[in-house]
Amino acid sequence: MAVVVRNRFYAQVALALALFTIIGFARTFYLRFLSDLPPLVTLVQLHGLAFTAWLVLFVIQTRFIAAHRVQWHMRLGIAGALLAAVVTALAVAVLFHSAAIPRVRPSGLTPSQFVLVGFVSIGLFAGFVTLGLAFRRRADLHKRFMVLAVIAALGPATGRFMQLLALSKYSYFIQPTIAAAFITWCLVYDWRKNRIVHPAFVIGGLVVIASWPLKDMAARSDWWAPLGEWVARVGAGV
Q1: DSSP state of 33
Q2: Can you give the pLDDT at residue 2?
Q3: What is the mean pLDDT of each run of 10 residues along the chain (238 residues)?
Q4: How many angstroms separate the CA atoms of 42 and 95, rounded?
């Protein structure tokens, strides 16, 4: 008997976020073998595979809830928590590695500066996932925190899109705009369905959007400089 899918919003937004990320990384990761780009180091490959697995699981989990397969959703929840921890650990390791590679970003940030952008993004991802797990018995909070976790991690995929379209110099504006577009979609859904927007989307969305200018300013600050240089030295020695 076919499964009846009712409330499909979260399944749709999860699929859209996953496709956005996968398409963004298509040339530099999934289809890299078709280009003349040098091969990725094993660490980066492992991180890419782990995050891909997490995205696939995220989409599957939303489909289970939409189809009222709550028990299956809960059973896979443990795997999702473990996978999120692996994704976070590998992301941090990749950030240490990338901080040691000489390269000036289109924004003008050096590797030791730009690494802060990555730390904030993965920190928000891990933070929202942790909140989602902590409130796993509050469906209204759980599902919104999980969506916010993926939105917070869209930066790298958005950056790849901008490189492909030669828009990297506008990253300061485009990066938060993409995140804001997905958050607005969520707010519109809330309003249309409940005639009120959930505080989790409002507060969490503001945190994600505000993080972009704040982490750019922090990356250029004097207090971050020695920390960024330390990250680069550690990354070079690993």
Answers
A1: G
A2: 39
A3: 58 95 92 88 94 95 89 87 95 92 77 92 96 93 96 91 80 87 95 91 95 90 92 84
A4: 14
CB-CB contact of 155 with 175 (8 Å):
yes
Phi, psi angles (nearest 5°) of residue 57: -65, -40
Distance CA 198, CA 216 (A): 28
d(CA 98, CA 102): 8
Secondary structure class of 196 (helix, strand, coil): coil
Q: For position 238, what pLDDT does the model report?
A: 67
113, two tokens: 């500066």
**Phi (first) and psi of residue 122, to 5 degrees:** -70, -30
| Residue 194, pLDDT score | 86
Give the chain's largest Cα–Cα span.
62
- Residue with the two structure tokens 């959007």: 209
